[in-house]
Amino acid sequence: MKIISFNDLKDIVKSGDVISIAALSVANLPVNVLKHIALAHEKTGQIDDLTIMLANDISDYRGDGYDLDSFVSRGMVKRLIASIIIGSPKTIEAIKSNEIEAYMLPQGLMATHYRRDSKLFPGTISKIGLNTNIDPRHSGGKVNEVTKKDIVSLLEVNHEEYLHYDFPKTDIALLRGTYADSEGNIFMNHEAHLGEGYGVAAAAHSNGGKVIVQVKEIVESGSFKPTEVFIPGELVDYVVVNDNPKYHRQLPQAYYDPALSGEYRINKMLEPFIEFNTRKVILRRAAQFLQKDDVVSIGFGINNELSNMLVEEGAHDLVQLNVDTGNFGGMVGSREYFGMNYNLDARMRHEMTWDFIYSGGLDVAYLSFAEIDQHGNVNVSMYGDRMNGCGGFVDISQTVKRIVFSGTMVVGSQSTCSNNELVIEQEGHTKKFVEQVKNLDFNAAYSRKLGQEVYYVTERAVFQLTDDGLKLIEIAPGLDLEKDVLANLAFQPIIADDLKMINRDIYQENWGGLQRSIQDNSSNY
Question: Is 81 in a helix, a strand, or coil?
Fold first, then answer.
């Protein structure tokens, strides 16, 4: 390991390099490293034609920060391979206008492929992504016209279909830790997420590339326990010391809060409970599919507020929440507390979290949707003028036993609750239940082959996936079936002979029935 200055980076990173970064938004993001690489490009006109690989979106969320957009806006990036892009608007526009090549692939595959990125393995071979837009029989993960090369192919092993992912080899690993000791060992004491930095470092080392780690401080060898080493010094080529807190934020909301890195527990949830509205009604109905001791995957979007509601209902200890970043249990923050996870039961490396998920560790997944079609297929990644990518949606939805998709039925509709009934005050402008989804992130027919139990929850109605298609099984109290539900579907669903009414109790400000619901569900199995 060699300690270098930020100015030395211009002599290490070269044009045409494949750069892998293990970060989530600003968490674990080596912002000062990115800054000096960008400035070196401005000064020399070099360090361009780069391929950037990211399991998660990165963003400094500030106008003067340095992140993916900073590289793309300077014309430094030729190709992006990622799972999700939300906080990088300039990158999204560059993809749309065909300025850069782009692939959106499953997050779990992105995070775990590094361990097979050597001459000893034939790349990553997996069933994850089959029969979705990742499958080469659809788009192969390519998201614009300028992206031509196939990096996902179909193959057969023992008469079964698999996908082969041919990721490029990593030349440069840009990583972050809290401390490095004098032997180059990296420690993550103050970080909110561990990430997949170890795997990225190992892949770069295997490829003869360089591993660069930004840290807060160099400490003497032996300052911490050997079990606390995150990346062994043998895999680290260069360490740069950052002394500017602006470029080493634990999360967008905080420079450093020890409770977010699991160093102590808080006494109560910091964020206020969700205000009473139709989103809360959706979460309440969706939560009624929970069973005691369920291991629950919390997706982003509306379901990120599920933890908040569980705490309010006193049902938080009945299930264990899992966020695919590697945080298990605890209280998962939402809204302005998004990404802030307190009182964790466990904190794991990102790639190990996917091992857990792929091994059947989850009981139920709470996922969002942008579009649902008559077959029950779901699009979550491309809709309207948005191009988000699938994140971990494909990985999770193809490995879990039960799935609950949650969201409003119509975009732009305005609803209230009165006398324990739903009142549609103004109809929306865009139907989410369409004849055919624009992008295939969840394949309902494949789900039936996998034997999954699947529900779709809105404020107006609940549907279930059956062998014959989408079945309407519940309707909200106060609604007219034809006018308020069927008229807002682009297809005719199967209607259950015993069509039920959603529990009226959830359409009032104070509920308090979730504990009983979860316990009753458990006694029925």
Answer: strand
Q: How much of the chain, in percent, has pLDDT values that exceed 70?
A: 99
Residue type, 29: L
Tokens of 519: 């316990």
User: What span, in angstroms and rounded, lies between the C-alpha atoms of 411 and 425?
Assistant: 14
**E runs forming strands in 307-443:** 320-323, 327-328, 331-332, 341-342, 346-347, 364-368, 371-373, 378-379, 382-383, 386-387, 402-406, 410-411, 414-418, 421-426, 430-431, 433-434
How would you label 128-150 residue by residue, b for 16+ Cβ within 10 Å and e otherwise? bbbbbbbbbebbbbbbbeebeee
Is the Cα dihedral 346, 348, 350, 356 positive or negative? Answer: negative
Residue 78's φ and ψ, nearest 5 degrees, are: -95, -40
Q: Please give the single-letter amino acid code of residue 72.
A: V
Q: Collapse the DSSP code of 51 into the 3-class scheme (helix H, G, I; strand E, B; otherwise coil) and give the result.
A: strand
Distance separating alpha carbons of residues 256 and 458, to the nearest angstrom: 38
Q: Are 482 and 489 in contact (CB under 8 A)?
A: no
| Contact between residue 73 and residue 357 where contact means Cβ atoms under 8 Å apart | no
Angle at the Cα of 482 from the Cα atoms of 480 and 486, rounded to 5 degrees? 120
Three-state DSSP state, 488: helix
Q: What are the backbone dihedrals phi and psi of residue 35, each rounded to the nearest 5 degrees, phi first?
A: -60, -50
Q: How far apart are the C-alpha atoms of 285 and 461, rounded to whole Å?
A: 10
Task: Encode pLDDT of 220-238 as tens digits.
Answer: 999 999 999 999 999 999 9
* Alpha carbon distance, N-terminus to C-terminus of the chain: 56
CB 169 within 8 A of CB 176: no
pLDDT in tens, 110-138: 999 999 888 888 889 999 999 999 999 99
The values of phi and psi at residue 254, to 5°, are -150, 140
**Residue 122 DSSP one-character state:** -
Residue whose structure tokens are 């279909």:
161
Q: Which two tokens stand for residue 413?
A: 């509709």
Task: Express each pLDDT in 447-501 by its tens digit.
Answer: 999 999 999 999 999 999 999 999 999 999 999 999 999 999 999 999 999 999 9
**Euclidean distance between CA atoms 447 and 18, whole angstroms:** 35
**Closest Cα partner for 281 from 517, 433, 519, 505?**
505
Residues near 480 by beta carbon (within 8 Å), at least 6 away in sequence: none
DSSP 3-state assignment of 512?
coil
Phi, psi of 475 (to 5 degrees): -130, 150
Query: Above 70 in pLDDT, residue 67?
Result: yes
Task: Please give the single-letter amino acid code of residue 278.
Answer: T
pLDDT in tens, 237-262: 999 999 999 999 999 888 999 999 99
* Tokens linked to 84: 């999700």
Q: How many residues does the chain have?
A: 525
**Spatial distance between the Cα atoms of 442 and 377, rounded to a whole number of angstroms:** 5
Q: How far apart are CA 143 and CA 469, in angstroms?
A: 28
